[in-house]
Amino acid sequence: MARSSRMENPPGRSLMKVLFDANVIIDIWGKTEDFAFSFEAMDVAIVREFELCITASMTPSIVYLLSARKLMSRKDAREAFGNLASLVEILDVGTSDCLRAQSEFEGDYEDDLIACSAKRNGVDVIVTRNKRDFVQSPVPALTPEEFVSAYKPADMEYGLVEF
């Protein structure tokens, strides 16, 4: 989704609704090798006062993968999820989403389910490291780097401190 200029909030709405895919959340909370752009994408969304969200169907995967990949203990993963839940809206996944994902899409069912819930819940963009998983999505998908490039305020300076 290339644009020649910075993207703006949708007309008629003051806030943009941004869904962060589980892989981006895991990058941030697990401080993976893809941490920098994922963290910056969420930071930009917070600074821009966008509505941040995930789907309920992502929650078990996020908690499980943080501990299974040894990124943190099971207890810490549950605590991290509690912190995340205070930052984001958790969107429901309903019967209509399940049936639509099953009948109208041919990709990974989990990603199709996320896309259907995102569409029904008025999400404007999905931020994911795996755009190819959302090629059929009715909601546009951007990588964290693309999201930062499109939405980072011009006056926002950013740099991670090396430790």
TrEMBL record:
One of its GO terms (molecular function) is nuclease activity. Keywords: Hydrolase, Magnesium, Metal-binding, Nuclease. It holds the Pfam family PIN_3. Residues 17-132 form the PIN domain. Signal peptide: none annotated. This is PIN domain-containing protein. It comes from Eggerthella guodeyinii.
